[in-house]
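User: My advisor, Dr. K., asked me to get a structural model of this assembly before our group meeting. I'm new to this, so sorry if the format is off. These are the inputs:
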Amino acid sequence: MTKRTVSRRTLFAGGAATVGVVGGFAAAQAFEGDDQTTSGTASYAFRGAHQSGIVTPAQDRLHFAAFDVTTDSREELIALLQEWTEAAERMMKGGSAGPIGPTEGDSRLPPDDTGEAIGLPPSRLTITFGFGPSLFRDGKGRDRFGIADRKPDVLEDLPHFPADALDPAKSRGDLCIQACADDPQVAVHAIRNLARIGFGTVSVRWSQLGFGRTSSTSTSQETPRNLFGFKDGTANVKAEESSAVKEHVWVGQDDDPKSVWLAGGSYLAARRINMRIETWDRQSLSDQEDLIGRTKDSGAPLSGGDEFSEPDLDLPGRDGPVIPVDSHVAMVHPSANGGARMLRRGYNFVDGNDPLGGLDAGLFFIAFVRDPAEQFIPLQTQMAKSDAMMEYLKFTGSALFAVPPGIGRGEYVGQALFT
Amino acid sequence: MRSRHLALFLPLAMAVPVLASCTENTDTASGDERSIRVVSDADSCEVSATEAPAGTLTFDVSNEDSQVTEFYLLAEDGLRIVGEVENIGQGINDRLTLNVPAGKYITACKPGMKGDGLRADFTVTASDEEVEVAADEKQMIDTANTNYLAYVQDQTDQLLAKTTEFVNLFKSGKDDEARALYADARVHWERIEPVAESFGNLDPLMDLREADVAEGDEWTGWHRIEKDLWPADAKGYEPMTQKQRVHYADDLLKNTKKLDKQVDGDLSFTVDGIANGATGLLEEVASGKVTGEEEAWSHTDLWDFQANVDGARVAFEGVKGLLETKDPELAVTLTKRFDELQKLLDTHKSGDGFVYYEELTEPQVQKLADAVNALSEPLSKLTGALLSRS
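Assistant: The format is fine. Below is the predicted structure of the whole assembly, which you can bring to the meeting.
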């Protein structure tokens, strides 16, 4: 088996090695490459029925950025989305951000690609765009881009939950871009270049690096561990569960008359969750397991079985259920929440340390849901109020975005919102 | 600090030390005769050996039945529980590690947690490793529990007396005197906070910080009054009316009385409850006091800090004798670290109390945080050490 090397330089130069792009609307994002677990040369198509980076098997690294739009011009905003579309499509194929390349242009000019990804393969890069509530109507109530009447009712700033200690500088935003890749340099390269393209139209409000995907979005992936050392998101919606994905992830044609443009898209809820790592580490193993409701080793629910066994929340133990009623599993499992499920796609983060030498670390939680008012807010409220694990968490960032559907040939991302 | 850590109101049998933890330990060395495998099923309890040499024994218990099971090591009389693991779900492994002197015992699996269980004789033979169980261990445990209960009751009595005085000053508008008493009265709360936390909603009603109030909930308790007494840092703060003052003052006193009554009632402690209380108090220091978040308006965080350390120290001293029979090195380390933290705190004393939090420099706060970490880490091993050997 010969491995194709799709380098960023050969790509734009000749295009001979360009991987095939699925034309029009494919049922799912086309996967290019021979072995999705080992090959850095694998890539995904940017265009398709849905945006990539949602049901795509979670990559290992994240760079997420939220932007504020600095212009009041609808035309400028659309022009940026068009430019972003072209750049994202090129980069996902392993190419450069601009049409010329990092070293190929006029030497008297700064290159249109920053160059740190020269020679790196596509690394399964996905770039996912989203629109925040403030894009539709800004803080002063202005409808800057003539789209306020198309704002879905559920696209609102998330409410204040107990134990929220939100940093405004790490919350909200008019736009967001989620870049995921197996190589951190590739993800950072994407955000850096898209931010650069946006200067004058948008400014970066905040951004977050993540590593060690904390959820599996495909049954072919092992459930990873969060920084508490536990497997997380076992009950996640998986790409292979096509009816569950349709029911819980994609916005439907009839969900809201104002947001027909969003059909086939989704909502992205982001929460920056700091963990009180040092205190957690001092809890006994059995206390940790009681707090989570699963064994630390296999991830099996305390009611028995293996990781994927359904937790039996009522199974009686010596003092109440074997799975404590205030454990994380008992709080957030779909069976305790009227079947509400979400597609979680979070990442661990460590942003150095706090002023007292503790790790500034935790989980950058990302969930894709069809309806945040039904699937996310009730769960988060329940958790904030009663989950025993909250003692070890501090919520420092929060945002909600509408993620438009995928696009076909010749279209730009989010086009349906502006036509 | 989680309330579950404080095992209050437990029957005596529970006070028997065990160390249990869920784990998937599948490769127990078969050559080790002190490692015994137990497989519990609906109608069988397979124990891999019928005898073992005295010393630290590990029973690796797995459950093949669909019902929850338990495993017991009982004394020869079949009544006294030497050690137990509970709540083992199907397919889950759990481990019981304990120090067992030579003698005759009975093993029992209890599928479905019902009845006498599936019993079998088990013999522990004499060996070099055998550790004499201190004859006075039970007495040490009893003494620790009695003393700690007396301490808690004394603190709540003092809390009630000073809170009564405080709310009267507050209601009659004697703000200077109320401010002077505030930190001093709260000391008695902070010394025993984990106990108060174990009484469900009393803690949030009495000690919630403004940042932790859920939208739509009423904010009551000490910190509500604190903000009214120290409005300087509160932007656009509207002072309480006299009616509001009476409302919040009476509410605090009512809940303090409730706490005092609960503590004077049918309350008992276990050694692990006491030890976990000490750990919990240091967690309080780490998450609230050392960061200056607890007393956002009065900045009297160091009073609380000292009180948390006082409470932890009392709890530790109560079980220290017992710890010395089990892990003398840990006892030495903890004593040393408590002393070091206290010495550091003493440098911030001022008059009868302390300097205010905002007077501390960053390096001073950092040093305090380091000292808290230095104590908290070994302290987190206290409960396990006390329980690890019987």
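One thing worth pointing out at the meeting: The interface with chain B takes residues 159-163, 165, 276, 278-279, 282-287, 289-291, 295-298, 300-306, 309, 312, 315-318, 322, 324, 355-358, 384-385, 388, 391 of chain A (CB under 8 Å).

User: Perfect, thanks a lot.
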